[in-house]
User: What shape does this take?
Amino acid sequence: MGALGKPLEDALGNFAEHSSLLIALDFDGTLAALVDDPEDSRMIPEARAALEALTPLAGVVIALVSGRAIDSLLRVADPRDEWFMVGSHGIEFVPPHTAGSYLAHSIVPPALLEGFTQITQSHPGTRLEEKAFGLALHTRGVEEGLAARAQQAARSLCEGWEGEIVVRRGHGILECSLIQATKGDGLQKLREVTGCQATLFAGDDVTDGDALVLMRGDDVGIRVGGGHSSAAFHVADCEEIASVLWHVYELLQAQSDPAASLPM
Assistant: This one.
């Protein structure tokens, strides 16, 4: 894995000096490469290995913070029982060892679901993701013009709906939510619940900006991929995020055992 650059390495060094660390990460595009079908998304092996190594370390808290609904995140991320999970852009919050009993009841009106279903049926290649608190229209991999028409149809449906609907756009996705919440809200709750002294947050999408703006002190905010961001640091892809995680692991191991090396 390549060098991260001295500014980022220095920031990670300051971060790792704290006795309690929150490592909160977006999933799609951050730990897993973006794919056309959301159900095909999987964490890259290097990132999973790094998180597996970090999980048992004293003072380290791992959290996945995703726009996905928790049931979707469970399917594709295969999370450890020790990890926190924040889903649906901060609406869903699942502490460690509770995923097996977690159940979200849908509040999506049948007529809204039917409207989105008709949009996907009339725009071949688009996909509908049903969430307990909203719906997501996926257009990744679809011809650009067709994708734009499908998203516009979904946006018009939401704008004409009686009652407040929050609409978000991301990489090949348009989401509507019946509850207002952000990944920043989810990150704030993680901080409150865990009491960690420093936070590392990384994400690749516009919606991750709500969490990245909350970085302070020795926190480390990382934007994955291109595009404007308030993050202090940028990396190219999931592989570089894996390098970040391994670097933190090495720093923590060096503090506890200077002779320690990476697990084989």
Residues 17 and 163 are 48 Å apart (CA to CA).
